[in-house]
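Why does residue order matter? Because the sequence determines the fold. Keep that principle in mind as you read this record.
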Amino acid sequence: MESQSNSLFHRIRQNYDYFFLISLIFGLMGTILFHRAGMGLNSFLFTIIIVVLFIFITKKLNISFTKWVLFCLITSILLSLSNVLTSSWKLQFLNNIGILLLLDTSLIQLLSERKSLGFFDNIKNILLLPFKAISSIGLIFVEGNRFVKDKKIIKNDKFRNILIGCMIAIPLMVITTALLSSADMLYGKIAKSMFEWLLYRDFYRIIIKIILGTLVCYCLLYGVTKETAVTVKEKTKASPTIGITISSLLLLSYALFCGIQIFYLFAGGIFVLPKEFTYADYARQGFFELLTVTGFNITLILICENVFEENKFLKGILTAITACSYIMIASATYRMILYIGAYHLTFLRLLVLLFLLIDSLLLAGIVLSLYNKTFPLFKYCVVVISICYLIFSFSKPDYYIAKYFLAHTDTNELESEDIYFLTTDLSYDAATLVVPLLEKHNDSRNLYQIDKYCKPLISDTKDIRNYNYSYMKAKKLLKDNLSFNKVD
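Structure:
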């Protein structure tokens, strides 16, 4: 009997015109919304369009949305909404990564054959999806040729074959031209001028972006439904002795580290750092140690669940390692608080604190998965990360960074580097605090930096695609401040 995945794969191939149209809409709308445009309302609209396309795809394939897929799609929409509300490029970058991962997860959950996957399998499928899509790129041309031939859209076979040859030859010409250009300087100069003439025309750029968007969408549909028919045999799990040995040695190392934290740092050494450490070195070491330990813990859980036979003693050791990890989280958090107390808040330091919070919650899920084999660890991790990051993203951290900085700094004695930090490192999310302060320090020392900060707000743009609430709020604040209207 044909598997569901192969069935979906063949149904997509059989309905080439429908799914090609879906892909074309994806490429067309992506180009319309993002061509020569920044990040703002277009991100929210494009995510909504993708969700609508998901609905059309599932209706055509007779697939129902699960609660899990709905959660991923709603979360991706909320992240795109955050792009409209914040002007921080750092947040927008992280939001876009989150949107991409959530949409990929939704696509895999909807169209992949195997629905009940373990933690490692889910991660593997997300990582492999781009490569599966790339390997499917030829199918869009093969199926396109078959569709045109079957529907007799181009009746002349010779003309159709010439078109196919041109489509295949264009990328090959780009590659060979690049190689020949490096072999001969004169040829390279001529080729460069020709390509520049083509690529610097908006028309060609738009066409290329539409084609690329269409290819990406269609190849993803092919890639996620194309599974290799391999019969998975039941694996014989190994003896837990190896796992016990590895985890026991790690536990000894962790116990020593945690003992130092308890008897030195948290007790006699509180608020005191060893002389050979700076605050930066101390905080940085704590963070990367924690990151390494978390990786070890996740690896050990995967080994325990997938390789070794179930063993109570092994579970106990892994639980003890998790307990040590919580002590390390406390240590790393304490170090970062010391570091922030000395050098103030930054976006990266807040992100580290968020990571520590998420890590502590994930460890709880890992322990639960040890004692409950049916615990959905992957879904738990996605939900925890999504909720914590959504709160972080919508909170506009740059505002609180500025608020903390000004609360711990004499605003009457700000240096040029302080103005640089407030106007360069922070986005317009903090404008309600920064703009009034700049008025007070609008002198020759800071004029260049203030000009650089204010000019994007003074420039008038009517492109609705770029609409950003944080940016427009800062613009209004600046216009209300008459002294800043003199800035050229």
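The chain has 20 helices and no strands.
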